[in-house]
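Re: the request from the purification team.
They wanted to know what the chain is likely to look like in 3D before they choose a buffer screen. I agreed to run a prediction and write the result into the notebook, where they can find it.
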Amino acid sequence: MNDATVPASTSSVPARAQSGPSVALALGGGGARGLAHIAVLEAFDELGIRPKAIAGTSIGAIFATAYASGLSGKQIRAHTYEVLSKRLDLVRDLYSARVRARGGFLNALAPRPAFLSAEKLLDIILPQRIARDFAHLTTPLKVVASDFYAQEAVVFSSGPLRPAVAASMALPVIFEPMVIDGRVLIDGGLVNPLPFDIVADDADLTVAVDASGAPMRRPGQDCPKAWETLFSANFIFERSIIREKLRTSQPDLYIDAGTSRFQILDFLKIDEILAAAEPAKERVKAQLSRLIEAETLSAAEPAEQLPTPAAPRTRRPLLKRRRTAKG
């Protein structure tokens, strides 16, 4: 797709004020549920805040990349609508992004590693202005993928950008694994579906947006369909990882995107998903504003009011008491 709906200027992107605490943002995986990240990015714009660092997994990596490239939430929304509104073009584009059988006609019926090439799809759907290399981003970015054989997380923060994002979104069966530096990489959500921990030390405050969701029983349906079970099982696994992470460490602000009722491939329900994400957007604006105000007031306290004036001030003392703040 071209990026005709994305203006050449990014002047609509507000710059974060020099004073006040810095903020790191983590966008999690979730398939179509992750369209909710657009609303959260708009919340940051409306607050006049640009993150000091961004981390993304799977679809969160896609939107994190666009935002770190300097696009505003509104511009990302417009481009996403452009891509998803042209349904016939989208079908054609998905067909062109399919994984072709190796070996020509005789192997046409041979098993394939997946249906689609994530890297080819990114070339089709991303705006042309998206950075090609981490070094060209306006905001530092970390992208999470999973090493299939080593069974560990791989975090990209330098080098070519699109292969890293393609690896992060390579959901098994749907997308072909990426091979980078000899490592076979698949969807980052399998190891770190909500990567707030990798940017926690990069800023004063950390905001994490969880779009993993949970399976929901449909009216009149006793059991899920086979395809629903296949894809939802992956997100049950991711949800379990997130819960375990939150037992030991928490972001300063945890936001549930509120899009659990949607399925992983419900991309054409963008209007409904973004509407469902509006409450999350408002929670980000209200709760992040309070956290920033509290941190700013804490930093402005006269030295004589501190318990030990001569001792160095530990990082975020006030907010340690606010770690339970959740959306």
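For the purification team: The chain has a mean pLDDT of 81.
Please add any questions underneath this entry.
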